[in-house]
From TrEMBL:
Lineage per the UniProt record: Bacteria, Bacillati, Bacillota, Bacilli, Lactobacillales
Family of this protein: Belongs to the nitroreductase family.
Domain called Nitroreductase: residue spans: 18-195
SUPFAM superfamilies to which the protein is assigned, alphabetical: FMN-dependent nitroreductase-like
Protein's UniProt name: NADH dehydrogenase
Length: 215
């Protein structure tokens, strides 16, 4: 797949600095599943701990999916959920280490790493996850998923859309409503994507001096 086929904006400065949360979208704008898949393809180039890729996405782009999305978000998120072309739920996969061998076997088959290097990865990283407690797995998956979600926000702009990340939803209802195992998958965020209806209000940031230090 040429995942950059539908990118219309290659200006990183514009994409990053002019990203804002849009909460009202033009209704009835359809984004094809092919293009939504391209955006996901781009989003999952994100880094992840040990390349575990502990993310999972559920795309709600038709009436039934959007109704499900509506049913789990808090009312203040109805405007963006009800007007977006698609709402993409980003979840963390707390069992991604079960399939972890696949990615390294593939790298090995591709000739990118030797069998010895692959086995070293298995010995070094897999036990970390196999012996991890629930909170470690959840934290790891949350960080991985957040990395991909950020990329999704940016690539949505590269495709000519605007977006809004949302975590204002009923956490315990998300996975089961989306048809997923709620033991395995934890909600991280949901991204509403579409063509904006209204202009944005630029949000305020703290001064970098107040949130950073050089030591
Ligand atoms: C983890 C997270 C959760 C958020 N949840 C919501 C939400 O539920 N509803 C919403 O309208 N915006 C939500 N936002 C968007 C923030 O309100 C927004 O990013 C922030 O006010 C800064 O504005 P900007 O995105 O326009 O720069 C969320 C953002 C993040 C990172």
């Amino acid at each position: 797949m040429d995942e950059t086929k539908n990118m219309v904006n290659n200006d990183f400065k514009d994409i990053m600095l002019n990203r804002h949360s849009y909460r009202n979208f033009k209704k009835d704008v359809k984004i094809s599943r092919e293009e939504l898949s391209e955006m996901l393809e781009e989003a999952i180039t994100a880094p992840s701990a040990c390349n575990l890729q502990s993310w999972h996405f559920v795309v709600c782009d038709d009436a039934e999916g959007k109704q499900k999305a509506h049913s789990v978000v808090m009312p203040f998120n109805y405007p963006q959920v009800d007007s977006a072309s698609a709402i993409i739920f980003v979840l963390g996969d707390t069992q991604s280490h079960y399939k972890y061998r696949d990615v390294w076997n593939k790298a090995c088959e591709n000739g990118q790493i030797s069998p010895e290097e692959r086995d070293k990865v298995f010995k070094t990283f897999l036990p970390l996850y196999e012996h991890a407690d629930r909170s470690f797995l959840e934290k790891d998956a949350t960080i991985d998923g957040s990395m991909a979600a950020m990329q999704l926000l940016l690539t949505a702009r590269a495709h000519g859309y605007e977006a809004n990340p949302m975590s204002g939803y009923y956490f315990d209802k998300v996975a089961s409503t989306l048809g997923l195992d709620s033991e395995r998958y934890i909600p991280i965020t949901a991204v509403a994507i579409g063509k904006p209806e209204k202009t944005y209000t630029k949000s305020v940031r703290y001064n970098v001096k107040d949130v950073s230090e050089f030591i």
